Amino acid sequence: VNAACAAARKAFDEGPWPHLSPAxxxxxxxxxxxxxxxxxxxxxFLLAAETGQPPTIVDMMQYGAAMSSFQFYAGxxxxxxxxDIRDGIYGQTLVVKEPIGVVGA
Length: 105
Hints:
mainly alpha, 4 helices, two-stranded antiparallel ribbon, 2 strands
């Protein structure tokens, strides 16, 4: 996990992703969705071969879930609220959402 996180951190720090706007990131995710849709049969076959699951389960749980996630985040990337003002007991508070880096889960 540490090696994977280190590689991801290096790729993030040295790659183009942090320099892209949210709209550009959404476009990248949208292109990924399009490619996965174009190659759906191939991806589903490989997922079934890799996991041993029947095609109906692969379609719903593997391919379908991945596509739903990509589609959701492609649509949400440029709509994310980075700052929020919240009312609290002592007045208003500014909540700023900032990326913290690579996370392994």
